[in-house]
């Protein structure tokens, strides 16, 4: 039997087990805007009979952008929030900006409710939470159990002065 003392489960967030990582998808607004712009560019290139460039634009818009959008996530390990998308990592490297945010560095948390209408006229609410700190903002939207788990884990480790009213 091993009688050595075990390391305690050390985590800043009390709602998260040691070693557990929660991940949510990033709000897809920028990717949707890029797809609309790419669609316009593709159609314009086809109109001007630049077929090779148009097909390239089509592939980038309708194959590469959705893959980039689905792989762009925000993860939380109990100590820091980290954005893991390929495109964001490249942008952060190119501009020497941050890609992670510790709980101690969070300055403000805002949550907005967004009303949408489903089929049949039923109103459904979605929520967008934005976390600001150290010159960066991380935004993610509701839509699953991971959103609730992320909020509980992050907000339980923050002081009340940081949270919105």
In words, what does this structure look like?
- The protein is of the alpha+beta class.
- The protein has helices at 29-47, 51-71, 86-95, 145-155, and strands at 22-25, 73-76, 80-83, 100-102, 108-117, 123-133, 136-141.
- The strands form 2 sheets. Strands 1-2-3-4 form a 4-stranded antiparallel sheet.
- A hairpin with a 5-residue loop joins strand 5 (108-117) and strand 6 (123-133).
- Helix 1 runs antiparallel to helix 2.
Summarize the structure.
The protein has 165 residues and is α+β, with helices and mostly antiparallel strands. The protein has helices at 29-47, 51-71, 86-95, 145-155; strands at 22-25, 73-76, 80-83, 100-102, 108-117, 123-133, 136-141.
Per-chain topology:
Layout (H helix, E strand, L loop, with lengths): L21 E4 L3 H19 L3 H21 L1 E4 L3 E4 L2 H10 L4 E3 L5 E10 L5 E11 L2 E6 L3 H11 L10
Antiparallel strand pairs: 1-2, 2-3, 3-4, 5-6, 6-7
Shape: globular
Strand order of the largest sheet: 1-2-3-4
Structural class: alpha+beta
Number of helices: 4
Which terms would index this structure?
165 residues, alpha+beta, 4-stranded antiparallel β-sheet, 3-stranded antiparallel β-sheet, 7 strands, globular
């Amino acid at each position: 039997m091993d009688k050595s003392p075990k390391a305690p489960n050390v985590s800043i967030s009390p709602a998260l087990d040691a070693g557990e990582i929660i991940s949510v998808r990033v709000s897809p607004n920028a990717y949707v805007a890029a797809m609309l712009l790419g669609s316009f560019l593709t159609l314009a290139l086809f109109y001007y009979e630049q077929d090779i460039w148009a097909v390239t634009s089509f592939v980038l818009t309708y194959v590469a952008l959705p893959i980039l959008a689905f792989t762009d996530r925000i993860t939380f390990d109990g100590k820091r929030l980290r954005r893991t998308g390929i495109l964001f990592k490249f942008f952060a490297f190119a501009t020497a900006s941050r890609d992670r945010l510790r709980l101690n560095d969070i300055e403000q948390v805002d949550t907005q409710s967004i009303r949408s209408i489903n089929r049949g006229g039923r109103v459904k609410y979605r929520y967008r939470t934005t976390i600001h700190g150290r010159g960066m903002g991380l935004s993610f939207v509701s839509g699953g159990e991971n959103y609730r788990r992320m909020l509980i884990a992050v907000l339980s480790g923050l002081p009340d002065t940081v949270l919105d009213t």
